Predict the structure.
Amino acid sequence: MTPILSATNLSKTFGSGDSAVHAVTDVSLQVQPGELILIKGPSGSGKTTLLSILGGLMRADTGVVSLAGQELTALGEGALAELRARKIGFVFQAYNLLGALNVEENILFPARLIPGHYAKARQQAAPLIERLGLTHRRKARPHQLSGGEKQRVAVARALINDPPLILADEPTGNLDSERGSEVAMLLHDIARKDNRAVVIVTHDQRIEDIADRILWLEDGRIRDRKQEPHEWTRDPVCGMRVDRWVARNVADYEDVAYAFCSADCHERFVADPARFAPTS
Ligand SMILES: Nc1ncnc2c1ncn2[C@@H]1O[C@H](COP(=O)(O)OP(=O)(O)OP(=O)(O)O)[C@@H](O)[C@H]1O
Ligand SMILES: [Mg+2]
């Protein structure tokens, strides 16, 4: 089967010299239609950078990205923007909804990026809005919506141009457990029923349960973690056991990486690291 998305030997470095950050190093991957893939890894491991490169929002220093057989990396800005609009739906953690537009207008926004597509998209919008349970909210502005509703608008907007590839960065990050499960099921549906490729960066266990494959990134490299995808450490502030691979709150102090159970513990540590760092 031809993969919808294929990436070969991607690398990306920010900055240079002593301050160089190797955000992505030699990453290769393929995603088939109908597949739901998860990218996990500690904070700063390069997940957002990789997703941005896969979606043609950022250029890699080296390596090749192909989408449905077409090489993204070989395209100029104009052609790349059009390919992105046709073939890729993005769901961002921060929703990125436009405050001046209502739900329906936000969802239809990407349709304007494809010449001659708007009238058709308008017809498709109603069933899509219905599918996402937003019919009664279609004239509401983003500030009037709950977090879950905003997230569903972001998913609908990603689908309006009927793209074969969906990329999502922490799509359930701000949702409570019921809404989060709903969006997780929706993304699953979008992969399976619509036969789209879905790539999700997430720390969310609920999505882990429905993924076909999990790719673990560590320091910008894909690491083979078929065995035990956990690495337990102690939160130096409260002493709680924390999984380094999913911890949201992390800090470096004297060349040691610490992980925290919460933003609270993280803040207390950063305010006075010498107090909490174990002395060796
Ligand atoms: N525009 C940039 N300029 C310089 N460094 C950057 C830039 N974007 C990201 N980085 C660095 O590259 C590394 C990878 O960042 P990235 O945002 O991809 O991590 P992440 O895995 O998405 O982290 P998180 O889970 O916290 O969202 C980090 O060390 C980050 O500081
Ligand atoms: Mg990120």
Observations:
- The mean pLDDT is 89.
- The pocket of magnesium ion (ligand 2) is lined by residues 47-48 (CB under 6 Å).
- The chain has two domains: 5-223, 232-276.
- The first strand starts at residue 5 and ends at 14.
